[in-house]
Amino acid sequence: MGLLLVYSSKVRCTNLKGLSIPEDRRLPATEKKTLSHWTWRFRWAASALTAFLAAGLLAAQDQGQQQQGQQDIPDAPSAVRPVQPFPSNLPPSRPQPQPEPEKPSAPPANEPAPSSTPPPMPPVKTIPPGSAPGGDLNTRDDLYRIVTRVNFVLVPVTVKDESGHLVDGLLPRDFNVFEDGKKQELKFFTSDPFPLSAAVILDTGMPDTAVQKINQTYSALSGAFSPYDEVSLYTYSTTVSQVSDFSTAGQKLTSVLNQMKLERGSNNGAPVMNGPLGPQGPTINGIPVERPGAQPNIAPPKDVRVLNDAILKAALDLGKRDRARRKIIFIISDGREYGSKVSYSDVLKVLLSREITVYAIGVEASAIPVYSKLQKLHLPHYGYSDILPKYASATGGEVFTELTRDNIEVAYARATGDARNQYTLGYTTRATPSSTYRDIEVRVSRSGLKISAKSGYYPLPAGK
Q1: Of 326, 323, 317, the residue nearest 156 (C-alpha)
Q2: How far is CA 275 from CA 104, 197, 293, 298, 303, in A?
Q3: Identical fold at 140-193+421-464 and 195-264+301-420?
Q4: Do the Cβ atoms of 365 and 334 come closer than 8 Å?
């Protein structure tokens, strides 16, 4: 783009025909000379200014073209103009000097030369199920695992006076706890009530009259639990059945108990020992027809009552409940046990290792004072006539022996009240970790009081 300015100034005065300038208005000769001098100066200055501007514009145009040839960088983004593409014909940038690689120092003479192959992976150590890792061994799964060392022991304790009423107001200094004869230092003490996780077990193998009596007390059984408790129901005779899973005490529990009122017990009559309906079948002159020469069977049939299996089933289910609840098994039975697949000692180990207390309502023969003592006898191959006191005593519970319907209903509330309102003692055992049985003894400094607490416990194995 070029700009050329041309300035021309010429003053010429011409006398036009018919026109004349009067003499008095004509300029003198001296003024004419002065005017001519300033006109010449003005012409010279205008010509110099024009040349200077033209030279400056030409220089600016050449410099702009030179910069555009070196680098064509687009303008900043604008809200009016569209964004221009980045130029592709940029000159190559000056390469940066690369630092010289350091030469590895020679290893000492006593050290082996480094190898280019990566080192082998370290061996992976696995931990057997149910055991705790030893030493400082950790894995990624440890981030999501809570490990509890089984060295803290909780002991629920029921304290009653001579009349059978609960005693409150005791302090930690009133209790002494001994494990295997060694006094323990209490680390935890509370008398606050606990919500219950209760497994109710009904014996349907009892005579039908006893079962029907129990059926009429279910409304009181439902009312013995608070809305904060959770209850599951089981029945047993020759087998064990779970009627309902754990649920909050309320309308659902009442509905299930109403359905259980249709349960029937065993035949009330005397067992048939002979005749066509007897266990040996039809006979002729006392000789079995189906098995000639065989001696007739005159022994009464054995009454199969799998109480141990029922308690074990309930205990395993209770072991999965929240540890913040008091776990109890509530049995309504005459206590007879025969034909279970598991023994008393096996079931007791599960109860003590999972901190479960057994309460029972002893009915029928177990509620008769003199007869109940005879029922506690254990004859080989004939099972237990009344095993309920053994479970209750070992776990810190109690057996309420009642005959009448009204007393049974009162016993429901007493049993659940005792289980909920206990003193809870806790200590850290100093014994060597093991799975062997440990004896517990609780003493109270006040006299004339009856204490109910578990007689010992089995520590759970690590990882349980």
Answers
A1: 326
A2: 107, 50, 17, 11, 20
A3: no
A4: yes
Query: What's the average model confidence in pLDDT over 127-132?
Result: 44
Q: What is the DSSP letter of 384?
A: B
Contact in structure between 337 and 384 (CB atoms under 8 Å)? yes
| CA dist., res. 228 & res. 250, Å (int) | 10
316's tokens: 């395993």
3-state helix, strand, coil in the chain (%, to 5): 30, 20, 50
Buried/exposed code over 363-387 (b: 16+ C-beta within 10 A; e: otherwise): bbbbbeeeebeebeeeeeeebbbbb
CA distance 421 to 423: 7
Q: Determine the CATH number of domain 195-264+301-420.
A: 3.40.50.410
Q: How confident is the model at residue 349 (pLDDT cuts 50, 70, 90)?
A: very high
Calculate helix-pair angle for 307-318, 344-353, nearest 10 degrees: 20
User: How many Cβ atoms sit within 10 Å of the Cβ of residue 362?
Assistant: 26
Is 49 in a helix, a strand, or coil? helix
Question: Per-residue pLDDT tens for 374-421?
Answer: 455 555 544 556 789 999 999 999 999 887 889 899 999 999 999 999
Residue 132: pLDDT over 60: no
Sequence spans of domains, the chain: 140-193+421-464, 195-264+301-420
Total count of residues recorded for the chain: 464
Contact between residue 291 and residue 321 where contact means Cβ atoms under 8 Å apart: no
Range scoring the smallest mean pLDDT among 115-119, 253-257, 453-457: 115-119
Topology of domain 140-193+421-464, per CATH?
A: Immunoglobulin-like (2.60.40)
pLDDT value, residue 5:
45
- In this prediction, residue 304 carries a pLDDT of 85
The helix (run of H) or strand (run of E) holding residue 189 is strand 186-190
Instruction: Give the count of beta carbons closer than 10 Å to the beta carbon of residue 83.
Output: 10
Which residues neighbour 363 within 8 Å (Cβ) at sequence distance 6 or greater? 206, 210, 213, 214, 332, 333, 334, 401, 402, 403, 408
Q: Which alpha helices (H) appear in 151-276, and where do they start and end? A: 208-215, 218-223, 251-260
Average pLDDT, the chain: 75
361 or 17, greater pLDDT: 361
For the stretch 25-54, pLDDT in tens is 555 555 555 666 667 777 777 777 787 777
Mean pLDDT, residues 343-351:
94
